[in-house]
Specification:
heterodimer; B: 321 residues; alpha+beta; 2 domains; 5-stranded mixed beta sheet; 4-stranded mixed beta sheet; 9 helices; 30% strand
């Protein structure tokens, strides 16, 4: 009876410990991915021009696991649209970045930290996963023992994103000053 | 008391900022000559023995629904960005209505019509500060169709190209032409606006670029080499000094100068001037008028006439009105 109780208690403790480690690992992974976003470690590729003001782009992120890469792809896409732009791909037209000032992030660091906050940042309003976040076989490339380069297709509403940043006074509108 | 002062200061700030806004440039989409020619919207007329072809915009607007669709999409997208465009079709109609009205108008007392010189007639065309010149061609490879799209932003002040977006869309078996055209506009307009924004930023930083010409009437006894003042400074030098003092950062280029004419290009005029303690938006005519007044006053006393051509060119004729 006593042994049974010990086994039961230890399995609960192990289960709690295991889930705690898992959560800690996931958070660590997310933090690492966040750092990589700020360090521009991702690539954008044009896929298609969607409905008015919307673009489909493929985001290549680097991560140990697919879930983190998928989540990070949304953030990277918005980050890239604001700061990097993306080149032409075949006959799909590339776009220049919304930021016209190379120091925009540094000048509005507090705003962007809040905007890109994991789990609740406003960036989520402007991006959705295309194809339910399914990743094509060729878009999962193992680049080292511990790391994958994962291509996720997302859809970004650039028109609304621009309006939002203009309203917040982060970027200038076309008619500002007139 | 404190509240009243704060309220007054706030009102003053609002009033000052309202008066210190630069003139918003007008933009109009115009089909290019190439597009008009390819689609058969040209008029031919005999100009002293030479056949001259000019675009027939009215016919194009009346007969081509694709043109209307493209212009309407561009207008809509620009309005969304806070920059509603001047509609060329409406501008043409307004000009025609004005012309008909002027022809019928007569004074109640004398029955005489409104005066209109040949120059006035020549100038009655649809104008905008920036022309968005539109060209598209349809490429066909077997059953596939694609659209090559070219949008050029031309500054009417200087005839310079200030913005551009061009490219060929994805070939398609099935998509209809209006769909391909809409896709072309959607994928190019943001890049066009980005280059337009660069132009506006330059405008705010360095002033508006215009062209100023100085000419003299044939019957004027003086010329641009006439000397004035104690140090015998030539009139052309006096005008150059005025330009250096009144342009933004003294930026202008004396392209040509003889005893009869001067040509100033890349003249950067400020966006505002002050009158009665208030800031007002400056334009080429106002800038040329300031030089005109300077020459008309003591010690030069040169009677002169200012004319403008388009939006960014002004000519001052010295020696009479």
């Amino acid at each position: 009876m006593k042994i049974k109780s010990i086994i039961k208690t230890s399995s609960i403790v192990l289960l709690v410990l295991f889930s705690f480690i898992q959560t800690a690992n996931a958070q660590k992974g997310r933090k690492k991915a966040d750092k990589q976003t700020v360090a521009w470690r991702y690539e954008l590729e044009a896929v298609a021009t969607g409905v008015q003001g919307t673009y489909q782009i493929k985001v290549w992120s680097y991560s140990k696991n697919v879930e983190t890469a998928t989540e990070q792809a949304k953030k990277n896409a918005v980050h890239g649209i604001i700061f990097k732009g993306f080149p032409n791909k075949g006959r799909v037209q590339g776009q220049k970045p919304l930021a016209r000032n190379a120091n925009l992030y540094e000048e509005n660091e507090d705003f962007f930290k809040e905007f890109f906050k994991t789990g609740g940042g406003d960036y989520m309003k402007f991006v959705t996963l295309a194809n339910n976040g399914q990743i094509a076989a060729g878009d999962r490339i193992k680049i080292s023992k511990k790391e994958y380069k994962i291509g996720v297709v997302v859809s970004v509403n650039i028109a609304e994103l621009r309006k939002y940043l203009e309203t917040k006074g982060i970027i200038k509108g076309l008619s500002d000053g007139f | 008391m404190k509240k009243t002062i704060i309220l007054l200061v706030t009102i003053m700030v609002i009033v000052t900022s309202a008066f210190s806004q630069a003139k918003k440039p007008t933009i109009m989409v115009v089909p290019s000559d190439v597009w008009c020619n390819e689609n058969g919207y040209m008029m031919e007329f005999d100009n002293q023995g030479t056949t001259v072809k000019i675009p027939n915009y009215k016919k194009a607007f009346q007969e081509n629904p694709d043109l209307l669709q493209v212009i309407s999409t561009i207008n809509g997208l620009m309005a969304e960005r806070g920059f509603p465009l001047k509609n060329m079709e409406s501008a043409i109609k307004t000009l025609e209505a004005n012309s008909a009205e002027d022809a019928m108008m007569s004074s109640k007392e004398s029955g005489i019509g409104a005066s209109e010189s040949p120059i006035d007639k020549l100038k009655a065309v649809a104008k905008a500060d920036i022309i968005m010149q539109l060209t598209w061609t349809i490429n066909t490879t077997g059953p596939k169709k694609s659209v090559t799209f070219n949008l050029q932003g031309l500054d009417s002040y200087t005839d310079k190209q200030v913005a551009t977006a061009t490219g060929t869309g994805e070939p398609s078996f099935t998509a209809e032409l209006p769909v391909l055209l809409k896709e072309a506009v959607l994928s190019h307009i943001d890049n066009f606006n980005a280059s337009l924004m660069t132009h506006f930023e330059d405008l705010f930083a360095n002033g508006r670029e215009v062209i100023i010409r100085i000419k003299k009437w044939d019957d004027w006894d003086e010329d641009l080499e006439t000397e004035y003042g104690d140090d015998d400074t030539e009139l052309s030098e006096i005008i150059e000094d005025w330009m250096a003092d009144n342009t933004v950062n003294g930026r202008f280029n004396t392209t040509d100068a003889t005893e009869n004419m001067m040509l100033f290009e890349q003249v950067r005029i400020p966006l505002y001037y002050e009158k009665n303690g208030k800031q007002r938006a400056m334009d080429t005519r106002r800038f040329a008028k300031q030089l005109s007044k300077f020459l008309k006053n003591e010690p030069y006393l040169i009677v002169n006439k200012v004319t403008t051509k388009g939006l960014g060119r002004a000519t001052i004729y010295l020696g009479g009105k």
